[in-house]
Amino acid sequence: MSENRDERGGREAGAEHHHRKRKSIWRRFKHKVKRTLYRKKWLIPITLISLVLLVSAGLFLRGQIVGMAGSRVSAAKQMNVGSGYRNITYKGKEYRYNSRITSVLYVGVDSEGELKTNDHFGAGASADSISLVVMDEFHRKMTIIAINRNTICKIHRYGRFGHDFGEFVDQLCLSFAYGDNGPMSCWNLRNSVSQIMYGIPINEYVITNRSSLPEIMRVLGNITVTVPNNDLADKGFIEGETAIINGSNVETFVRSRDTKVEFSNVGRMERQKAFINGAMETITELLDLRPNEVWRKIEAAEYCVQTNITRSRYLDLTKAISNAVYTDDSYYVVDGKSVAGPLWDEFYVDNEKLLDKIVEIFYIEK
Asked: For the domain 71-365, what is the CATH code?
């Protein structure tokens, strides 16, 4: 089953409104069913079959969620977090958190034009591309951790006027959509990603939308990439061949996918990896040689960017990036399993592999 959630924006969170109408709707529904079953006794077997199908679907979903939780518990048993995330015991060894790490959440959301806070909650854009940029000044290296937008995890849902209904299990991409398209959306997404990453703190964030792509290419210029798959062969991107990415085709390359095809986001993530790896040398050079020029161009595009990074903090980060070693292997895509859910594609993280990677990237053995 293909993923059919609309990526062009969020959805209205009308939970409060629906709650007020729920009882009256339910009474009318029960009365109608009772009257219909009385007049048409042959509907009873069909109704029972429908109930069986609904219960089966519910059990299937519950099984997926319980399976995910079981995997997470199994992985967590190997890690004793002790005094929070700072000191852990993992597979019989003791580790301390590397305090010279900075984690920046980079997210591309599915909207155009000005990226601004909404007056109400629940109508924000969905998060298309979600990555954690990890700068390790101790080891002088940088890692990018790409997380599938369809990851099933805990996210907060809010009512129209910001009432927090608590945590629900849903797609990670919707953690931004359920907020206000501004600070609360950013917090919600950061919180969900931090939970996926076993409580690792996320210091800063950068949120951009589709309108930022031409602005980014004006900074970077032409980028040469090796095409990783044939998902966009009909658009001239052939697997194994090199392609020049510029302002005219960048959105097609890093964002396009066929939402009618199951797990199409996996192929898109491969292209995003190819783009970042192709652009990293240029990015590092620009930040090293012309950081102020890059900042001025970022300021010109502030209408389609949200971030909590100040100019002085940005200059600190540019130094960390310039001193960091980055190779194609520095880009890590979180392992897991894609499942065709009843309504949309779902991705379940392989928590054993993720935990291994978290310890490798964020921790130092005592």
From this structure: 3.40.630.190
